[in-house]
TrEMBL record, chain B:
GO terms for cellular component: endomembrane system; plasma membrane. The gene is nuoN. It comes from Solitalea longa. It is a multi-pass membrane protein. Its EC number is 7.1.1.-. It is an enzyme of class 7 (translocase). It is found in: Cell membrane; Endomembrane system; Membrane. Pfam families: Proton_antipo_M. This is NADH-quinone oxidoreductase subunit N. The lineage of its organism: Bacteria, Pseudomonadati, Bacteroidota, Sphingobacteriia, Sphingobacteriales. It comes from the Bacteria. One of its GO terms (biological process) is ATP synthesis coupled electron transport. NDH-1 shuttles electrons from NADH, via FMN and iron-sulfur (Fe-S) centers, to quinones in the respiratory chain. The immediate electron acceptor for the enzyme in this species is believed to be a menaquinone. Couples the redox reaction to proton translocation (for every two electrons transferred, four hydrogen ions are translocated across the cytoplasmic membrane), and thus conserves the redox energy in a proton gradient.
UniProtKB/TrEMBL annotation, chain C:
One of its GO terms (biological process) is ATP synthesis coupled electron transport. It catalyses: a plastoquinone + NADPH + (n+1) H(+)(in) = a plastoquinol + NADP(+) + n H(+)(out); a plastoquinone + NADH + (n+1) H(+)(in) = a plastoquinol + NAD(+) + n H(+)(out). This is NADH-quinone oxidoreductase subunit L. It comes from Solitalea longa. Residues 135-420 form the NADH:quinone oxidoreductase/Mrp antiporter transmembrane domain. It is found in: Endomembrane system; Membrane. Residues 440-578 form the NADH:ubiquinone/plastoquinone oxidoreductase chloroplast chain 5 C-terminal domain. Belongs to the complex I subunit 5 family.
């Protein structure tokens, strides 16, 4: 087992374990912290795949910005163990069953898929910033530009919804 | 392509007009911009132009649906009059967001690359999440926005997952290339297709992913609901058909049974629940679920006739919906309620409104000599061609249930007494839209050949 | 000629509808009436021209334009004008015109005058479309259209809730029938690859009997709804809530005969399916007797006529079922005359009585309403089947054919005819003979109706008396003009039927049959005379005790109640079930329970927190998992 492989298994284990803790933790703050841990492990996986750009973006955007926002919201709303409504045991049970079935089905479906030519990365450096930029500004120029409409719309909407009505 | 640019620029211009408080110019500028966009589409008819490495391809299919979306938006804008002003003073922003949403819709009907599909859906959806919640002081509206947002994001996740799996299987986002490789990669591809199917059925509100529809339609401001049930739904179905009709045709066996079950479930739930509603808005919400069921039949039985069938159905349904929602807005403004009882005696106090509503509901119900009849007729025609007689039997039965609840409104309008006999005053634009919709509905009911052979 | 002008026949009433409908608030009453009547008169004149043209040159198909084309399905918007159609055109426009004229008098003081004429014209338009269409889709459009108009006109006086409910009932019952019709059309298409008469009928014999039986039975379900046959008949008596001329035009003379027209049009399909023929005959006969029995005890003058209509329609279906296509159609024609007359006469009586419909409040009207009295007498004699009035010939022809099939059917049919004679004369005597039983005020108010109402009565009376002479049977040394005229339509079917069984009745048998039925009818009338004129029996009030069968008849055999228990409530419960289980229980989940949705205004925020959206998402996940399991594990 090479170092890369053992690192992969280690990170994968931590990722799954911490995401389980996200769900089961009773305190919302703990949940968020475990989520941050999960993101970090995923970043590690990205870097193992030589996808630096995604790895860094993942840290900055998810672990950095979004998670801080989460923490703020939780603190501002003063959520804690007592005030959080708990699901009934029945719902939990059904949830576990469905989740389990989903897991089994997806595993069964994807297990037998052989890594084909298209699945295996052809070019090792594909995830580097330079290569990604070239694809983004050549082949995917239009989506890249049109996303601006999405952001503009979302920005206008955010301002619209957040602003106090002056009447 | 130029139409998307025109729409986006119009949106920004409108935003600035709002900044400089030129309120009276908002509507004319928006409508002019939309007319320009439609004109630019007409110019490229039959040209089949593709843009930026086949990201968007404006074939006749895309153009026809784009024009339908734009036309529906214009009608809704004309209905808006001072509707938005009553909600708040940020009218320009509303027009802007709706215009952005429309540009997303145009992207959705013209995409050739799944990344564009995703972006189009997101532009449309995000804009609609916002619009659903613009009544900030109304908790129903807030709830609608939140629900729509949370569930929509969930579906977006599924959609992305599906796209990723398909990319993994084929190494491409391009529909044509995917279609070329579809047969080589069964299992991964298979999973991807199923996930995309789930996501698309969510976006168009098909059972069992319809739960958001009634709550959101009812909670959102009525005009926004009308936009959702027409533009959003049409764009969703057009994209659905474009995706499945071009990329996944070589593997039709995958989704048939799943979709059949969904069609039946949707027809049953939509129609039977709608029959039970006392609130007209909620009734129309459930009925929009049932219409999704009929349109899904055309996707289920992909074939030569499907695009035409969906187009005709969309045209009929959009126009009739705009008219019925328009009447509902007018009634609600006067009576303060959109319950069935608010329509009592409308035939007496407002014969024009009542007549418009009657024709619109007849069309939605599929009564002959209205456009809606041909919508259903062509959809059933697709099913006949594929020998799905039993499915038609269910669909026809459900159509009968549909007529039952649409007629509840007509009964209320013509055969019940109203408490007050004040008639509702309508602006000229409002009357124009309503009469226009009715005339198109009847015209297409008498001469459907006008649009049946477009595609 | 026909080719150029035939399209005007339906278009004229449509123009009338547009003029009256668009300007119904502004148009003066004179103009409304003029437009309403003139357009139908125009159609009538054209129909006469068409009739002679068809008589001379045979059937014609008029293609207007290519209407629908989807895949292999091509539906031209075209009219087929043959002998059957041309007679229907004459009945619709002719009787329709008279009723329009009558309406100008009857509805004169109504505030919805303009709207009324607009609806009436629209009805005529759809009815004409129904009979003119050259394929089942156009027929279906007319079929739906007349249903819509009937619905609007039944509920015309919508101020009364019961009237609105009657309209709703009519609509729902008709929908059940229409459903059968529509599925039948789809099956026709999938069997024959076309829905045009001209394509289907020639290749009818290629289809298997089982398929034909299914199709014809489905079509018959449609006919049962529209023509008020057991078990879908209860809407028709309730439909009497509408204005009386509407009852005359729609619920007696024209719309309700659409079902008969449809079967007569599809005669070749029915002939090839003996089971369907038997079902049609059986249902028709059962309805004829059943409705006649109910009519015996009704006290509302319009209700008597309504049940009598149901019963007469039953006879027509009996005629179709035993292969007497011409006879059934003959009866459609004569029935249009005498039943329109009776309804209009009843309308005249009601008009004079100031809206009173209960016969127990009438009596002795003969001297106050002489014209109405005389014309009603003609109508009553015609429906009772006294020679030489028109009803005798048509009913006799149906019964004669029934005898060829089975003497038992004939006997039951004659029994029904005796009942008919009894209840009609009961109605007639109660209304016009004896002493006046209404209030003093009503007595003071009594007057003969204006000329606009009496002239149509007289014209219809003349038709009721002499209308039968177009179909005098051979046995009475007449030439059956109608039979001859219609032979191109029914010829093939008659051949098939003749090849299958029974020879012709001898003249002696026919004389005997006629004699027996006429004698029975006379005795029946005499009995009614003894009871209601000599003994002056007046039916007991609502609350009076009644014996078993009488009580059942008075209460219309509790059919409405049974329907409520058997269909409406289970349907309601089913609807409730779907509503509760699908919409509420599952969605809201075990946690929320249902009921909150209706109180959505209360405490919304809390509900979101109790996991409402969570439940939605949860349901979606379950759906997704199910789809995945289904697609990957099976």
């Amino acid at each position: 087992m090479t170092i890369t492989q053992s690192l992969f298994y280690f990170l994968a284990f931590v990722a799954i374990f911490s995401s389980l803790l996200v769900v089961t933790a009773k305190n919302p703050i703990h949940s968020v912290l475990y989520l941050i841990l999960t993101f970090f492990t995923l970043t590690g996986e990205y870097i193992l795949l030589n996808a630096q750009f995604i790895g860094i973006v993942n840290i900055i955007v998810y672990a950095g910005a979004i998670m801080v926002l989460f923490l703020f919201v939780i603190m501002l709303l003063n959520l804690n163990v007592e005030s959080e409504p708990q699901k009934t045991n029945l719902m939990k049970f059904i949830g576990i069953i469905t989740g389990g079935i989903g897991l089994v089905v997806l595993t069964a479906a994807l297990k037998s898929t052989d890594p084909s030519n298209t699945v295996v990365i052809q070019e090792v450096d594909m995830g580097l910033v330079k290569n990604l930029g070239q694809v983004l500004f050549k082949e995917f120029l239009l989506p890249f530009e049109i996303v601006s409409i999405l952001f503009l719309s979302a920005m206008v909407g955010a301002v619209l919804l957040a602003r106090k009505e002056t009447k | 392509m130029s139409s998307i640019i025109i729409i986006a620029i119009t949106a920004i211009v409108v935003l600035y007009l709002g900044l400089y408080k030129v309120k009276s110019a908002l509507l004319p500028v928006s409508v002019l911009g939309l007319l320009g966009a439609a004109a630019s589409l007409v110019c490229v008819w039959d040209k089949n132009i593709s843009y930026f490495n086949d990201m968007l391809v404006f074939n006749n299919y895309a153009i026809a649906f784009s024009i339908l979306l734009i036309a529906t938006t214009i009608l809704i804008f004309l209905l808006s009059g001072n509707y938005f002003e009553k909600i708040s003073s940020n009218v320009a922003e509303y027009y802007t967001i709706l215009l952005f949403a429309l540009s997303g819709g145009v992207v959705m009907v013209s995409f050739q690359n799944m990344s564009m599909l995703f972006i189009g859906i997101e532009i449309l959806s995000v804009s609609m999440y916002i619009m659903a919640g613009i009544k900030k002081t109304d908790s129903a509206s807030n709830e609608a926005a939140l629900k729509y947002f949370l569930m929509g994001s969930f579906a977006t996740g599924i959609l992305l997952f599906g796209i990723a799996l398909i990319y993994g299987a084929t190494g491409s986002f391009n529909l044509v290339q995917i279609a070329g490789k579809a047969s080589e990669q069964p299992l991964l591809f298979y999973a991807g297709v199923i996930f995309m199917l789930i996501a698309m059925t969510f976006k168009v509100g098909v059972a069992p992913f319809h739960f958001w529809t009634p709550d959101v339609y009812q909670g959102a401001p009525t005009l926004v609901s009308s936009f959702m049930s027409t533009v959003v739904k049409t764009a969703g179905f057009a994209a659905f058909l474009r995706l499945f009709g071009s990329a996944f045709t070589s593997v039709p066996a995958i989704w048939t049974v799943t979709l059949v079950v969904m069609v039946v479930l949707t027809l049953l739930i939509g129609n039977i629940t709608a029959a039970f509603q006392q609130n007209v808005k909620r009734m129309l919400a459930y009925s929009s679920i049932s219409h999704a069921g009929y349109m899904l039949i055309a996707i289920l039985l992909l074939g030569q006739a499907s695009p035409n069938a969906i187009l005709i159905y969309s045209v009929a349904y959009s126009i009739a919906s705009v008219a019925s929602f328009g009447v509902m807005v007018a009634v609600k403004e006067q009576k303060g309620s959109d319950d069935l009882s608010a329509f009592n005696g409308l035939g007496r106090t407002n014969p024009v409104l009542a007549f418009v509503m009657t024709v619109a509901l007849c069309s939605l119900g599929g009564i002959p000599l209205t456009a809606g009849f041909f919508g259903k007729f062509y959809i059933f025609g697709v099913a006949i061609a594929a020998n799905y007689t039993w499915l038609i039997a269910i669909a026809v039965l459900m159509a009968a249930v549909g007529i039952y609840y649409y007629f509840k409104v007509i009964i209320a309008m013509y055969l019940r007494e109203s408490e007050n006999s004040e008639s509702i005053q309508l602006s000229l634009a409002y009357k124009f839209v309503l009469i226009f919709c009715i005339m198109i509905t009847i015209l297409l009911g008498i001469a459907p050949a006008l649009i049946t052979n477009i595609l | 000629m026909t080719e150029q002008l035939a399209w005007l026949i339906p278009v004229l009433p449509l123009i009338g509808f547009l003029i009256n409908g668009l300007g119904y608030k502004k148009n003066p009453k004179g103009l409304v009436g003029l437009v309403g009547c003139a357009t139908v008169l125009g159609s009538f004149i054209l129909s006469i021209l068409v009739f002679f043209d068809i008589k001379a040159n045979g059937a014609k198909t008029i293609d207007l334009y290519e209407w629908i084309s989807v895949g292999t399905l091509k539906i031209p918007f075209s009219f087929l004008i043959d002998q059957l159609t041309s007679i229907m055109l004459l009945i619709i426009t002719g009787v329709g015109f008279l009723i329009h004229v009558y309406s100008t008098g009857y509805m004169h003081d109504d505030e919805g005058y303009g709207k009324y004429f607009a609806y009436l014209n629209l009805f005529v338009f759809f009815m004409l479309l129904l009979v003119l269409g050259s394929n089942y889709v156009i027929m279906f459009i007319g079929w739906e259209g007349v249903g819509l108009c009937s619905y609007l006109l039944i509920g015309f006086w919508f101020k009364k809730t019961e009237y609105a409910n009657a309209a709703k009932k009519a609509f729902v019952m008709n929908r059940i029938g229409d459903l059968g019709f529509l599925i039948g059309i789809f099956m026709l298409f999938s069997t024959f690859g076309s829905i045009s008469y001209a394509d289907i009928f020639p290749q009818a014999q290629t289809a298997s009997t089982a398929v034909l039986t299914t199709i014809t039975l489905l079509l018959f379900v449609g006919a049962m709804g529209k023509s008020a046959q057991l078990p879908l008949y209860t809407w028709l008596p309730d439909a009497m809530a509408g204005p009386t001329p509407v009852s005359a035009l729609i619920h007696a003379a024209t719309m309700v005969t659409a079902g008969i027209y449809m079967i007569a049009r599809s005669n070749i399909l029915y002939v090839l399916s003996p089971i369907s023929m038997a079902v049609v005959a059986g249902i028709g006969l059962a309805t004829a007797i059943f409705a006649a029995v109910i009519a015996l005890t009704q006290n509302d003058i319009k209700k008597v006529l309504a049940y009598s209509t149901v019963s007469q329609l039953g006879y027509m279906f009996l005629g179709l079922g035993v292969g007497a296509f011409t006879g059934a159609f003959f009866h459609v024609m004569t029935h249009a005359f005498f039943k329109a007359l009776l309804f209009l006469g009843a309308g005249s009586v009601i008009h004079a009585m100031g809206g009173e419909q209960d016969m127990r409040q009438m009596g002795g009207l003969k001297k106050h309403l002489p014209i109405t009295w005389f014309t009603m007498l003609m109508g009553t004699l015609a429906i009772a089947g006294i020679p030489p009035f028109s009803g005798f010939f048509s009913k006799d022809e149906i019964l004669a054919h029934a005898f060829e099939v089975s003497p038992t059917i004939w006997a039951i049919g004659v029994g029904g005819a005796l009942l008919t004679a009894f209840y009609m004369f009961r109605m007639f005597f109660l209304t016009f003979n004896g002493k006046f039983r209404g209030t003093e005020e009503q007595h003071h108010h009594l007057h003969e109706s204006p000329a606009s109402m009496t002239i149509p009565l007289i014209v219809l009376a003349v038709l009721s008396v002499f209308g039968g002479f177009v179909g005098v049977p051979e046995a009475l040394h007449g030439s059956h003009l109608l039979n001859e005229y219609l032979s191109p339509v029914f010829g093939q079917s008659t051949q098939i039927l003749n090849a299958a069984h029974h020879g012709h009745l001898s003249h002696e048998t026919e004389y005997a049959l006629m004699g027996a039925s006429v004698l029975g009818v006379l005795i029946s009338i005499f009995y009614a005379y003894t009871v209601y004129v000599r003994k002056e029996v007046v039916p007991a009030a609502e609350t009076a005790p009644r014996s078993g069968l009488e009580k059942a008849s008075y209460n219309k055999f509790y059919i409405d109640e049974i329907y409520n228990a058997v269909f409406t409530r289970p349907l309601d419960s089913l609807s409730q079930l779907f509503y509760r289980i699908l919409d509420k229980s599952i969605i809201d989940g075990v946690v929320n329970g249902f009921g909150q949705l209706t109180q959505w205004s209360a405490d919304k925020f809390r509900r979101i927190q109790t996991g409402y959206i969570g439940n939605y998402l949860f349901m979606m996940v379950v759906g997704i998992i199910l789809i995945l399991v289904f697609n990957f594990l099976f």
